[in-house]
Model the fold of this input.
Amino acid sequence: MKRRSFLGVLGTIFGVTAFGSVAYPLLRYLGPPQAKIDAGKQSFKKADVGDAREIVFQNTPAIIINRPGKGYIALSRVCTHLGCLIDYDRKSKKLICPCHAGFFNLEGRVESGPPPKALTTFPLRVEGEDIIIG
Amino acid sequence: MWQKLKDGIEIRIGLTDLIENRLRQYRVPSDTNIFYTLGIVTMAAYVVQAITGYFLLMYYVPHSEHAFRSVQDIMTIIPFGWFVRMVHMVAANLMVALLFIHFISIFFMGSYKKPREITWLAGGLLLLVTLAFCLSGYLLPWSQRSYWATTIVSNLPTAFPVIGDALANLLRGGDSVTGVTLTRFFSLHVGFLPPVFLSIVGLHIFLVWRIGLSVPPLSQSAEEESEWTEFRHATYSRSYPFYPNFLLKEVSMIMLFLAVTFFIMSFMPTLFLPEAATTPADPLNTPADIKPEWYFLAPYQMLKMIPNKFLGISLQIIAIIVFLFWPFFDTRAERNIMKRPLIFGLFLVLLALWFLLTYWGRYSA
Ligand code: HEM
Ligand code: FES
Done:
């Protein structure tokens, strides 16, 4: 190998190593550790039939709904379209996103509007006066 | 005394020579219209942003618990703080408007054609950087409007399969908008974007200066139309000096810009300040009427109407790329748009569509 092409190869190797060793830490730097308050289960107070209670479960705004005839369900309030928070409309028995008029039914499934998929459901258990989620 | 000072400076810098040879003898075509001043006016708008932004920095606190309060204090307690902030806000909007008009007039006059393709590309990048300024600045007051508009925008990348979520989280520094997002956007807004903007402006203005202003297509002479086969500075059959003639035109347009800025501040102070901008951010409550700023309404409405998120966003990325590299697609030498009915028609349709979507986005649910 000629001296000049050897230096070229060497320079490339060092250059790529240097670049990679800088790019990787910087990329990692941009993604800070998430505050994981993984409490596992959390318990909440019950709601009356037909009512809903807004809660925060593991950092996610969520809602517990006491559906008439069907019992409790816990859903994330984060709209699957672009992340606005849905509201419970007691009259129409629907969950409505104020941003682009996304409508969900009380199972969390999309009824109309731009959201691409159903709201996240959290597993839930009723224990005496408490509702346990997680 | 004054004369002595002048002589002293003259010996050391050679100002007379600079003015005589670089400014007075620098020629611009005598058919330049007022649209030729828009670039400088936009630059003046940037300078206004840099100065007012610098003053805002003295009281603004980039922390989710203090940001809203600090902006309210600037508005109500700090003497003339409202003045500084209102100039920053109004001029930011006008700066985007200026860039839009600049771009439309360049397009109509065909000034992007050979040899000015790179000048166009740099200008297109400047428009994108300015929009990034607006987007990052928008979050800083930490109001309901800031918070939820940023939530929506930072979720746009999630339309991309596989890397979408990671990209959105990288942008926000987490899976929702938090204080981490605020400091991130703050550092973009005041630390990263200004030097990027200034470097691209440097290239843009250097190229304009080096090649020389274009002659409007309708008054082009045969000689001026001749093919560009090697580098040359543009030559004109009829021209006048840059200084003082053209500079005066530019300065009076800058004054018009300042007049509009202060007119809006005095007589339409809430034009860019809806109610959601004066309520503190509440991550547990999305307000009813979150609308992006007027310049984002058209793309926003388009996203709402296209049922497939991925398709909607891909279309917009393609549109941006076509826009940036347009001079490399449209290589016909003909600069008179009246002789290109197809392009002319298409552009008018696109403009009309933009206005329609903006109007629709503003008034639809
Ligand atoms: C092209 C240049 C710029 C544009 C388009 C721009 C745009 C904006 C916008 C739209 C806001 C939100 C305004 C509001 O709602 O109050 C803002 C806020 C802010 N900007 Fe800029 N900006 C620019 C340059 C700068 C520079 C150079 C600095 C500092 C060196 C700066 C510092 C700030 C600060 C501290 C705030 C938050 C205070 C507040 O919102 O009143 N900006 N900017
Ligand atoms: S964010 Fe809910 S419909 Fe768009």
Q: What stands out?
A: The CA atoms of residues 27 and 241 of chain B lie 5 Å apart.
